[in-house]
Backbone:
């Protein structure tokens, strides 16, 4: 059995939605490893709430979210850095574990790799965002082959890295209830932030004259206010950041999930959450969702940034069989399949002699 130390994203407590999709990934992978009998210890910010999972809570000031920075913004560390404190803890306990798994999209843990006596698996949760991260990710991929893992090939391609493991994602399907007959609603899920281009979904809902339920962490209040001012008559309703159980209760009743990523979405966990409920996904043909949605079968892939394309897809939803959507989630995105991929990745790294660089 493996002894695994999971070190969280440092942008906010787990379970609050600040960490976006990587929170859900960390939770599902940890739960599945424990179910298989492995030892898992999670190192995370104070206030992290993951039911039944063993968490060591670490104090300190959160890291600035990487997507708010420019490509050449220098890496910044606050005083009393939570990120540094988490990795100091990992350094102290490292010899109790076979492998450390890093879930942070940050320079420090990647730079620290050769300073540790225990191997580190780095799960990269976003596409390329900065020169400094590209440089250190590429260096670790070269010095420690196989230890950089991505969600998808299109995400890896943004770093010009080809040979790295792509682990995809997965969810606990038992939490998502299939709904055969939807209400006349559309859904949009995600952190309310510019890179998610919520405004396109709002405009499409207005043109299609179909109410839009919006759920997710309110990351950028000004951005949200701007949308409300620009679309005062749009049929939208913001429901906040809900637990998986409450979120899927809303999502499952919708005609479709709209995904409008302005950036290369690394995966798009919300897409498989929708499919698990039988909800077709309409997404820009960009990044992770383009590898998840089977165009015309489990939803529609639309020309990126084309609101008209979203509206046309909404009009064609009757062509999609909702049970086919649920089946695709069961076939591709179960938490058991996820566990197989991650366990294999972990074992491959543990069995690779550590490169003495
Ligand atoms: N920014 N600096 C930093 N570190 C992270 O781990 C991080 C982030 N921004 C967003 C984020 N993680 C997650 O929301 C995405 O990986 C899903």
Residues:
């Amino acid at each position: 059995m493996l002894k695994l130390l999971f070190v969280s994203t440092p942008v906010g407590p787990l379970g609050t939605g600040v960490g976006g999709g990587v929170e859900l990934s960390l939770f599902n992978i940890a739960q599945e490893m424990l179910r298989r009998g492995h030892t898992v210890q999670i190192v995370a910010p104070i206030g992290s709430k993951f039911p039944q999972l063993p968490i060591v809570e670490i104090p300190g000031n959160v890291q600035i979210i990487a997507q708010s920075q420019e490509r050449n913004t220098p890496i910044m560390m606050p005083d009393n850095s939570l990120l540094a404190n988490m990795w100091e803890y990992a350094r102290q306990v490292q010899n109790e574990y076979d492998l450390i798994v890093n879930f942070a999209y940050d320079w420090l843990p990647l730079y620290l790799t050769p300073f540790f006596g225990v191997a580190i698996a780095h799960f990269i949760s976003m596409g390329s965002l900065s020169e400094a991260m590209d440089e250190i990710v590429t260096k670790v991929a070269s010095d420690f082959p196989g230890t950089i893992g991505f969600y998808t090939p299109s995400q890896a391609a943004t770093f010009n890295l080809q040979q790295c493991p792509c682990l995809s994602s997965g969810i606990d399907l038992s939490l998502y209830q299939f709904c055969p007959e939807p209400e006349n609603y559309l859904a949009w899920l995600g952190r309310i932030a510019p890179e998610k281009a919520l405004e396109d979904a709002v405009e499409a809902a207005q043109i299609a004259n179909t109410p839009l339920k919006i759920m997710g962490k309110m990351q950028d209040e000004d951005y949200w206010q701007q949308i409300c001012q620009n679309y005062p008559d749009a049929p939208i309703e913001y429901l906040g950041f809900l637990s998986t159980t409450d979120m899927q209760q809303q999502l499952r009743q919708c005609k479709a999930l709209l995904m409008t990523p302005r950036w290369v979405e690394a995966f798009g966990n919300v897409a498989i959450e929708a499919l698990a409920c039988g909800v077709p996904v309409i997404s820009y043909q960009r990044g992770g969702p383009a590898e998840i949605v089977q165009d015309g079968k489990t939803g529609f892939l639309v020309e990126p940034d084309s609101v008209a394309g979203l509206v046309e897809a909404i009009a064609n939803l009757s062509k999609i069989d909702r049970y086919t959507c649920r089946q695709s989630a069961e076939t591709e995105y179960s938490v058991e399949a996820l566990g197989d991929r991650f366990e294999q990745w972990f074992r491959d790294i543990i069995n690779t002699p550590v490169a003495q660089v």
Notes: The chain has two domains: 3-170+334-356, 173-332. Residues 43 and 58 are 7 Å apart (CA to CA). The longest helix spans residues 20-35.
